[in-house]
């Protein structure tokens, strides 16, 4: 495979409604897309970094900078070109390993090259990753609202739409009351989990343990990402399973968390861990230790959403992920919309991601584009 170059494209997409978490409120997405061009095909990648370094230390402008100055020149070097010609996308992680962090940028470029490679071979993302299902259950992430009645109205709408699992964002001051209200209104049969996005400390353990009465699937990332030992201590004080998100940035960190009994469940976000191939390694590691995994979301467009659906079709993904339909966040997606039917989303079966941007829609939301030849 001969890689000819990569395009960096910024797009701006408004959300259908504000999405509030413990670290801030989003009303639109500033998204970095990558297009890899080879002799045989074009492939797309999506960088999930946010506009500001709030979810992680990475942010969109930083990812553009590191791609331009370090990552893409490495891939364009004679060493990089030779490795990609031999091994395709599988060579990307090793080539970029000397550069610390920058996992979201690394994931995006690996994804674009892998998409181009698979399109050239006529193979799908799902087949390449090891998918065993042709559709996956669809859960939805519900943000923080100004009032409980407003929250209940939103949850009712998602249940009416057919989502099979509800995740509530929580923070200090917005936890026990909204969770209790959702349980009381919709009953114990609705699969329910909560996500704190690092908003608590171990001093809140007694308070968080009160969530046990609501029979939750899990509590996601209650403590700071570095506090793996704190999560292990919290796990001993709660019946609700602990799920790690921000703390898991590689298979190595996942192995350490598992060894320390810091989690019983792992949220796998390919962008957070450096790519879909590393995500598959974490899946395999968790499966070997008997831990459930599920696929998290970062408000992706149809490009990233299609790849996540393929990943979530692997056998160890036994819990519904945050893989909602396109219209959960965007009135108009840049690809053909990802749709939900009977609470599930079909795994794309076409070559590569199985979806491509619609040129006129993509152009309408593009704010800049830069071609970097190799």
TrEMBL record:
Q: Which residues form the Mandelate racemase/muconate lactonizing enzyme C-terminal domain?
A: 148-241
Q: Which UniProt keywords apply?
A: Lyase, Magnesium, Metal-binding
Family matches, as Pfam families = MR_MLE_C, MR_MLE_N
Single Gene Ontology MF annotation: racemase and epimerase activity
Which EC number applies? 4.2.1.113
Q: Which SUPFAM superfamilies does the annotation name?
A: Enolase C-terminal domain-like, Enolase N-terminal domain-like
Enumerate the Gene Ontology biological process terms. menaquinone biosynthetic process
Tell me which cofactor or cofactors this protein depends on: a divalent metal cation
List the protein's name. Answer: o-succinylbenzoate synthase
